[in-house]
Design a protein that fits this description.
597 residues, alpha+beta, ph1033 like fold, 4 domains, 7-stranded mixed β-sheet, 20 helices, 20% strand, ATP binding
Length: 597
Amino acid sequence: MMPDKNSLIAIREACNEAGLKGEEVIQHLGTWQGEQYMKIDITDSLFIPVEYKQGLLQGISTRLLTDGDGGSLVSQLYNMVTKQQETNPSQKGSKDVEFSKNQILYGSPGTGKTYNTVLYAVAICDKKSIESLKEMPYKEVLNRYEMLKKEGRVAFTTFHQSYGYEEFIEGIKPVINQQDEDSISDLKYEYTSGVFKKFCEEAKKVRVKAPSLKIRKHPVVWNVLLEGTGQTKLKEECFKNGYIKIGWAKQDPFINEQNDSVNGTVRRILLNFQEEMQEQDLVFIQRSNTTIDAIGIIDGLYEFDESDKRYPRKRKVKWIATNINEEVYALNKNTKLDRKTVYPLRKMDIEGVINLIEKYSSTKEINVEKNIDPYVFIIDEINRGNISKIFGELITLIESTKRIGASEQTTALLPYTGEEFGVPNNVHILGTMNTADRSISLMDTALRRRFKFIEMMPDIEILKELGILEIEGINVPAILKVMNERIEFLYDREHTIGHAFFTPLVGKENQSVQNLAHIFLNDIIPLLQEYFYEDYSKIQLVLGDNAKTDDINKFVLDTEVKLKNIFKGNPDIDLPEKKFEIQAEAFYRADSYKQIY
């Protein structure tokens, strides 16, 4: 069905009234196959049925419509209909750069999708435009990216076929329950948060401002057992002298992850006390499995006191309150305290903890602010995982309007812990997707409509900008351009070859026929073999071998085969009377490449 003239005029006028170029929109109307579309109802409009007996022209591919092929117009139409305005993230000089909460960079292999996640992550976190970062040296951007990862504002994971809900959201894992420093009890099972849930919890953390108390911006609350629960001599000593102590005197003063002199549970406890615990963190001294009898602020680095033969491991503490009996079960999301000597209380409600501190502290200069810094969670190869299995109930919660603090804020009860969980508004999800991967066809439709898709296609201009022009008379950008034109005709544009395959040629010292040969032999040829399922006649067409007169310059050499010389009698077999082989020597000849284009 195609709209008639009156309908086209109605569309054009509506677009002009909305500030869009109506004539340009009309020019971009066309046919499209796919699962994503937008339905617009035009009242009192007529549509003319079009009979096209031959069907769609051969070569039209099924693909997602995005900015790269006119999708920006569709995006503007969508925003007009939904009354949403979106800032162009690549606009130079933009003061308030905004990005979609969920984005996927997609394209054929080697187009720099993973490479560009670094740019997008830094741009989102630092509220800069993509174009401004492209003007900076990539090494500087990469350094900033690594810093953001260390700060916990950027995380990276890769989906695969065995990746599941338990790794992404939450699950159950077996642990050895440590009772005291000399013995361990039997096996037990604990609920554990997956990578995305942990990341969201980090992004939710409030900021604490307490100059006089010297509590750090994002404090961790530590549970510490001093010689056990209830009243103990060690507690009295620590409360009186302003420190906390733990044992394991026979172990090395300083241990690391590779230390095998202690079991895994003890190693984790010692590393928590030695490495993970930071100055200006908060510490709760456990009284029972639901109460505490002291609150303090870590006030010093880790020490090992050799004179103390029982509890040599020590940290200074500035006590806010001691010898109290405070219930913290509700603050810890209705979870009882474990009998572990030292461990972080990740579920603890920081705002509630601050209220507790204010109750016992003389100072009232404690402010709690919501964390509004952008966080970016990167999912490489997002289409390779079972989306429904991995995301579960989050498929709804990741929508921008369903985030915590958004207009339609939504939370869900998690199946294992029963906790109420929502995705923070400051969390951005950035995925990458390879269009040549056959698993793209299995991509969950529900996920597709919740993400903005940004197409990344081969770009010979990038090769030119990198100084990859001619190598011993071989025009490298021309090779890429011509091969992709042929692949697009023989297959489709989703299986073209990306420019990133040729980046090892950056720098004059790397620009040689030998290095170009390595790229073709190790990357390009295997990719073409996968694309065409070892149909070497098509690979010959892509490489231009069919037009070469001299066999010495052919990358794929074909020779005639007489079936009667191989099989006895007259075999009634429909087999091609040719055999193909990769001619490695041709890849080291400049003339072989020149004859591609």
